[in-house]
Write a structure and sequence with these properties.
Layout (H helix, E strand, L loop, with lengths): L1 H29 L13 H140 L2 H4 L2 E2 L2 E3 L3 H20 L15 E3 L2 E2 L1
Keywords: Coiled coil
Length: 244
C-alpha cells in the first residue's frame, strides 16, 4: 500500500513537471527575442509542426501518466475494499465467537448453580436422616432399658410366685383339717376319706390384677410385651389326704 502511494505521488510530481515545461515552452515561443537567429529563417509551417509534435508527445505522456495513476488509484481502492471487507468479516466472526463463549459461560453457570442446589439438598437430606437415626437410636435405647426393667419385674414376679406356691402348700393342711372337723357330722368323722382342696390365695388374685394392669400399660406405651393376652397366673392346687 505504501509502495503504491509513493508511485502515485511520483506520478503527480512528474505530471506537474511536464505541465511546467509545457507552459515554459509556450511562453518562450510567444517571445520573438528568445527565438534563435537560425530559427527565424525557418518557415512558420515547420516551426508550428515541431511544436505540435512536442505538444502531442506531452499530451500522450500526460495521458499515460494519468492512466497509470488512475490504475494505481483503482488498485489501491480495490485493496482498501478487500482489506475493509476482511476486517468486517473478522470482526463479525469475533463477535460470533464472543457471543458463543458467553452462551457457554451462562450454561456452565446454570449447571454449577443446579449442582450446588443438589449438593445443598443432599446435605439437608443427610442432616434429616442423621436426626432420624439419632431419634431411632434414642427410642431403641429407651426400649432396651424398658425391656431390662420388664425382665427384672418378671424375675421378681416369678420369685414371688414360687414363694406363694411354697407358702400355700405349707399352710393349707392345718386349715383344711380344722374346716372339715367343724363342718362334717359326727358319723362321717370316723370315715377315712381323701379330700382334695383347691385354694386360690388372695395374693395370686392380686398378682393377676397387677399383671393385667402391667399388660395394659405396655400396650399403651408401645414397649415390648412380656405377657401375652392369654397369659394367666397359674392357680395353686394343693391336695392332701385327710384321715378322719
Amino acid at each position: 500500500l505504501n509502495f503504491h502511494l509513493k508511485n502515485a505521488e511520483d506520478a503527480d510530481s512528474l505530471l506537474a513537471d511536464f505541465r511546467e515545461l509545457l507552459d515554459y515552452r509556450s511562453h518562450k515561443c510567444s517571445e520573438p527575442n528568445d527565438v534563435p537567429r537560425t530559427a527565424t529563417n525557418e518557415k512558420a509551417e515547420t516551426r508550428n509542426k515541431a511544436w505540435e509534435d512536442e505538444v502531442r508527445r506531452l499530451r500522450t505522456e500526460n495521458e499515460r501518466l494519468t492512466s497509470e495513476k488512475n490504475s494505481e488509484i483503482s488498485a489501491l481502492l480495490a485493496e482498501k475494499n478487500f482489506i475493509w471487507n476482511q476486517y468486517n468479516k473478522l470482526e463479525h466472526d469475533m463477535n460470533e465467537q464472543l457471543r458463543s463463549k458467553r452462551t457457554e459461560i451462562e450454561l456452565g453457570n446454570e449447571k454449577i448453580r443446579a449442582f450446588m442446589s443438589n449438593i445443598e439438598e443432599l446435605q439437608s437430606s443427610n442432616t434429616d436422616k442423621d436426626k432420624t437415626i439419632a431419634t431411632l437410636k434414642t427410642e431403641i435405647a429407651k426400649l432396651e432399658s424398658g425391656l431390662v426393667k420388664k425382665s427384672e419385674e418378671l424375675f421378681k414376679l416369678s420369685r414371688e410366685l414360687e414363694l406363694l406356691k411354697k407358702s400355700g402348700s405349707a399352710s393349707v393342711t392345718p386349715l383344711l383339717r380344722q374346716f372339715t372337723s367343724a363342718s362334717e357330722p359326727p358319723k362321717h368323722r370316723t370315715d377315712r376319706k381323701t379330700v382334695t382342696f383347691k385354694e386360690e390365695p388372695q395374693s395370686s388374685q392380686a398378682l393377676e390384677k397387677r399383671s393385667s394392669k402391667r399388660k395394659a400399660g405396655d400396650s399403651i406405651s408401645g414397649a415390648p410385651k412380656l405377657f401375652t393376652s392369654s397369659f394367666k397366673v397359674p392357680k395353686l392346687k394343693t391336695s392332701s389326704p385327710l384321715v378322719i
